[in-house]
Design a protein that fits this description.
Keywords: DNA-binding
Pfam families: TetR_C_7, TetR_N
Number of domains: 2
CATH superfamily of the largest domain: Tetracycline Repressor, domain 2
Helix content: 55-70%
Largest sheet: none
Order of helices and strands: HHHHHHHHHH
Organism: Lysobacter yangpyeongensis
Shape: globular
CATH class of the largest domain: Mainly Alpha
Number of strands: 0
Oligomer: single chain
Protein name: TetR/AcrR family transcriptional regulator
Distance between the termini: 42 Å
Strand content: under 5%
Length: 223
């Protein structure tokens, strides 16, 4: 994962309009339609009318759930991350080792960033002339959310004495940058069409081993 931009928090997106309890099925349909439309056509060339038509709902329903297009874009990114990197993945699990948890996070992250949807939305944000704030919306809804959840896990392990990390934020960024590696760039550049599953697994295992060699706390010496 690349270095974070300014951590200054932008204005919060507009809240959805108040009213009756929202239909979760319609919300899911709108998010699915938004992900398809944004990845296929970019941000500027997609309207709320088009998303409503794609989802089979009224434009009023879309606005009722999400308020504006920027909020819908952010929620679509968050939903994609949650599909493969649910918050529970970063929870403390006493029944598994730290290495097992890091490997699980690594596998999920590699699968996410190298998926066709994620690659497409990355190109939308970096190659088209979007609004200036689109990149910040993407960062806050996806990479920042994932990295902050991981930082929480690292802080817990530091407090427990399992890890020795002087700068948790930097260490979290390093972990995700290592996981992206060469494979992600090859996919983005179109040099390869897909990643070999065995190579992806070997990359995750090696990355976790390197991370632990750097930050695993030394065992306490016996007196």
């Amino acid at each position: 994962m690349t270095s974070a931009p300014s951590r200054k928090t932008p204005p919060a997106p507009k809240p959805a309009a108040p009213g009756r309890p929202k239909d979760l099925g319609k919300r899911a349909a709108i998010l699915d339609a938004a992900k398809r439309m944004f990845t296929a056509h970019g941000f500027e060339r997609v309207s709320m009318d088009q998303i409503a038509a794609e989802a089979g709902v009224s434009k009023l329903t879309v606005y009722s759930h999400f308020g504006d297009k920027e909020t819908l874009f952010s929620e679509a990114i968050s939903a994609k991350c949650e599909e493969q990197l649910a918050q529970g993945l970063f929870a403390v699990d006493p029944d598994s080792s730290l290495r097992e948890r890091l490997v699980g996070i690594g596998r999920a992250f590699v699968a996410l960033i190298n998926s066709e949807e994620a690659l497409a939305i990355h190109r939308v944000v970096t190659t088209q002339p979007p609004p200036v704030k689109l990149g910040q919306l993407f960062w806050n809804a996806g990479p920042r959310r994932v990295q902050e959840a991981f930082e929480g896990l690292l802080r817990h392990e530091v407090a427990a004495g399992a890890l020795d990390i002087p700068d948790v934020h930097r260490a979290a960024s390093q972990f995700f940058c290592l996981l992206k590696g060469e494979m992600h760039m090859l996919l983005l550049c179109g040099c390869i069409d897909c990643i070999d599953a065995g190579e992806a697994e070997a990359h995750v295992q090696a990355t976790v081993d390197m991370f632990l060699r750097a930050y695993q706390a030394a065992p306490a010496r016996k007196r």
